[in-house]
# Entry
Amino acid sequence: MRLIKYLLVLCSLHTSLAFATTNEMLENARNAYGNGDYTQAISIYETINKEGESDNLYYNLGNAYYKNNQIGKAILNYERALRINPSFDDAIFNLQLANAKIQDKIDPIEKFFLTEWVKSLRLLLSSNTWAWISIIMFSLALFSALGYAFSPYKWLRKTSFFMILFFFIFSSTTFIFAKQQKKHMELRSEAIVMEGSVTVKSSPDESGTELFIIHEGTKVSIKSSLNQWVEISLLDGNVGWVKKSQIEQI
# Structure
């Protein structure tokens, strides 16, 4: 029993020390950023990031990179913040500022408006938030089912029936959104170009035909990989191969 208490005390002490150390490092990073020492702020934030990711950490890291004129890295970290928290308004705004500075202006292929509307709606919230909404809606559907089963009034049973349908459809939709958001986070099928200019090849080797050039900060989708090469696609539908070292996954 004493051994268990001793171990609990040690664990608690270790957690407290780690928390205090992280807070001190965050304060140092904020001070460095405030003093214009963006390189030092980046170094500290990157060190903290190895212990565990968070939307605020990625956001602050993106700001430091942006101030340090490393636009590709800034965009990467804003995108990572939004991967965790899609409704992070400050990250959305700063990402727009950073994207305005990149060289490539790619016009996306027009898609069916309803598909784009549903995607935009799904991206409003994180997978966990959609999951909680789904659980709440399903609980309300069950509550309505009780009203339908036990109510002595015909009008209330009729109302309960339509409420069951509404809450069940809402629960199913948000459950699908939660699954899609989780899959999006886990697959990490998007990346940012990290080099000043990258020549996209027709095949995964140096002798491949040069198709087109993309630049630092451009967002691409990863289709497949082969050894040290990845096949990418752009929003305008162009497809080709680049080296893995030339991009970084969001």
Summary: The first strand starts at residue 190 and ends at 193. Confidence is low (pLDDT under 50) at residues 5-19. Strands lie at 190-193, 197-201, 210-215, 219-226, 229-233, 239-243, 247-249. The domain at 190-249 is CATH 2.30.30.40 (SH3 type barrels.).
